[in-house]
Design brief:
14 helices; 294 residues; single chain; binds NADP nicotinamide-adenine-dinucleotide phosphate
Length: 294
């Protein structure tokens, strides 16, 4: 299949590489050209603009940082709206606001273009291993059309309805739960460590008994080793996601008191440790607040 791929950051570069490996004809574009070089060396075509990537493609996938990055890539004379042929499909895999997903769906619909939201669960290591979980929503025929691409990058695909923004909402709920688990791990590990139990030992007990889940294993190890750099998922992107959760919570009149704590702790981690750290660095704030090294 001819696929345009826009956004070659931590996630996008790994996903595009797996599409190439699966034998798809991939043409890539990234705002900073340098990041495209390894993919071009591996056989991808290079587009000079989002519109150019779209011109010869049946499907264009985007994996950009946030709503603003997606908007910048869609709009203008060189943008995706302009370049995508009627009947072609745009699959957005970024974590974006529910309202933004609705706006993009309407804009594509008005141009006779198809649109799917397909955000993913899994960090860059999972993306490299083609082990992502894809959560998608949109017209069933469009999801069927995208199936070979999803198969090349993921271990499972969840369909959550025919309104694209439903997938964004599911993804935002999931990220809220991941960060809640990280906060709980950070506080529990701090308590254990201050009381003389090694965090790694606590983690062995928890993941070997009632908390045997990928989230606890992955983030528990990062926290026990205080390994917040380099970021797999940078704290500012996590802050963006908590802001998007808050926007949906306000729109739907859903009080989420835990969300305020998570947002504040992300702000604290970014203020104290810089914007380069992983979002799991909120656990180091728990340690520092207790007088331990963060
Ligand atoms: P990243 O490494 O920061 O990459 C961001 C990408 O967006 C880069 O290609 C960047 O281009 C591009 N970009 C940013 N601003 C732009 C603009 N104004 N115009 C055009 N391009 C722009 O982020 P990531 O970790 O790959 O995450 C990408 C998306 O996946 C995010 O929505 C994130 O929430 C979601 N996600 C991430 C993870 C994870 O663990 N990392 C997991 C699941 C979902 P440049 O290279 O030019 O800066």
């Amino acid at each position: 299949m001819k696929v345009g791929f826009l956004g070659l950051g931590n996630m996008g570069a790994a996903i595009a590489a797996n599409l190439l490996k699966a034998g798809h004809e991939v043409i890539v574009w990234n705002r900073s050209k340098l990041k495209a070089e390894p993919l071009v060396a591996a056989g991808a075509g290079l587009a000079g603009s989002p519109a150019q990537a779209a011109a010869g493609s049946d499907i264009v996938m985007t994996m950009l940082a946030d709503d603003a990055a997606l908007d910048a890539t869609l709009s203008g004379s060189e943008g995706l709206y302009q370049g995508l042929r009627p009947g072609s499909l745009h699959i957005s895999m970024s974590t974006i606001a529910v309202a933004t997903a609705d706006e993009i769906a309407a804009a594509h619909g008005g141009r006779g273009q198809s649109f799917l939201c397909a955000p993913v669960f899994g960090r860059p290591e999972a993306a490299k291993a083609a082990k992502l979980f894809v959560v998608t929503a949109g017209e069933a025929a469009a999801i069927d059309r995208a199936a070979p691409l999803f198969a090349a990058i993921s271990q499972r695909v969840f369909r959550v309805g025919d309104k694209p923004s439903a997938a964004s909402l599911v993804k935002l709920c999931g990220n809220f739960m991941i960060l809640s688990a990280v906060e709980a791990l950070g506080e529990a590990m701090t308590l254990a460590e201050k009381g003389g139990v090694q965090p790694a030992q606590l983690l062995e007990v928890l993941t070997g008994s009632l908390f045997d889940a990928p989230i606890y294993r992955t983030y528990g190890t990062l926290i026990a080793e205080r390994r917040y750099l380099p970021a797999g998922f940078a704290a500012p992107l996590g802050l963006k996601d908590m802001r998007l959760v808050g926007a949906s919570a306000e729109a739907l009149r859903v009080p989420m008191p835990l969300l305020s704590v998570l947002r504040d702790h992300l702000l604290q981690a970014i203020a104290q440790q810089g914007g380069e750290v992983d979002w799991s660095a909120i656990a180091s704030s728990a340690a520092r607040n207790a007088g331990l090294p963060g």
